[in-house]
Amino acid sequence: MRIFQIDAFTDTAFTGNPAGVCLLDREVDDPWMQNVAAEMNVSETAFVRRNGDEWSLRWFTPTVEVALCGHATLATAHALFEERLLSAGATARFHTKSGLLTTTHAGDLITMDFPAKQAVPCAPPEGLIEGLGTQPVRVSRNEFDYLIEMANEEDVRSLTPDYALLRRLPVRGVIVTSRASTAGFDFVSRFFAPGSGVDEDPVTGSAHCALGPYWAPRLGKTNFTAYQASRRGGVLRVSVAGDRVTLAGRAVTVLRGELQV
Fold first, then answer.
1. pTM: predicted TM-score of the whole model, two decimal places
2. How far apart are CA 230 and CA 29, in angstroms?
3. What structural domains does the chain harbor?
4. Tens digits of per-residue pLDDT, 140-199?
5. Annotated catalytic residue within 44, 149, 153, 200
6. 44 an active-site residue?
7. Number of neighbouring beta carbons within 10 Å of residue 111
């Protein structure tokens, strides 16, 4: 079976968020997919299989399966177009644990249609403030993650979390965000998910399903250019329309291989 490593939310190799993409040619079991994801050892590996004119899609970190992953979906769509399994301009329909997701390809830009994830204010749980090592402006939570607003971009960029403390939180991860002070961006973020096997994710599409709806009323707009301020960094174009969020970005194939096992 063919397998790829693709850098997502970037047009430059060795930046953005690397994802594994495995093109399944048969049914496989969950432990096998988990082993492949552990072997790839990137934040998520996607497993995609054709089902008529549509596709089934699942995502695994090196340690667990996750219900939603943006950058690995972007990487999957990129692989299908490059391998001529989807034609230019076609819409790909993926059946996932988060329902039907679609992607469209125009030029070198891939746009994904995802469900919005609304975060509601909450009290910080034990270990969250201590794990971040700083006092946030606001704490919220959605079905997957805590969403933490900081006072400014420098507070987001300078965080040095205690991953051992964050690992104890009963959530997928912790999104930290602020308004952007860097020209050309509306907001910045980082994403920490040590409990899911990823201390800091380089660029997290699914987190922006919550960040878009979060910033829309605060910034008075529905279209954003966002920057995820990890060491590798990544740029996302985010649009909010009711209960849906569209995420757009580019991707670069770094490795193509053949899985022997």
1. 0.91
2. 33
3. 2-113+247-258 (3.10.310.10), 120-242 (3.10.310.10)
4. 999 999 999 999 999 999 999 999 999 999 999 999 999 999 999 999 999 999 999 999
5. 44
6. yes
7. 18
